[in-house]
Amino acid sequence: MSDIHPAPAEFSADQIAADAILRYFHYSHLPTVLQAASRPFCELARHIVETLPRNPERTVALRKLLEAKDAAVRANVN
């Protein structure tokens, strides 16, 4: 596990082992306003891994969701 990207508590170790990208959905380290922007993306990532079969399209969905999360957080940085 990386100190820069600690695993979010919302995901199990098995989920992170299967989809390492999930570690980038952590948000507890962010200021409150940025947590509010980031949290829904973490929740949607959890929904994706819990309801969709693991396949290349799910991987693409998670990657694009991460891109969207990063943009939403940056939009709130003054």
How would you explain this protein's 3D organization?
Helix 2 packs antiparallel against helix 3. The protein is globular. It has three helices and no strands. The chain has 78 residues and is mainly alpha-helical.
CA-based shape: globular
The beta-strand count equals 0
Number of helical stretches of at least 4 residues: 3
- Major β-sheet profile: none
Overall residue-averaged pLDDT value = 90
C-alpha end-to-end distance: 30 Å
Radius of gyration: 12 Å
The residue ranges in which pLDDT falls below 50 over 5 or more consecutive positions are none
Secondary structure blueprint with pairings:
Elements: H1 13-18, H2 32-51, H3 56-75
Helix pairs in contact: 2-3
Brief summary:
With 78 residues, the chain is an all-alpha fold. The chain has 3 helices and no strands.
Entry keywords:
3 helices; about 60% helix; mainly alpha
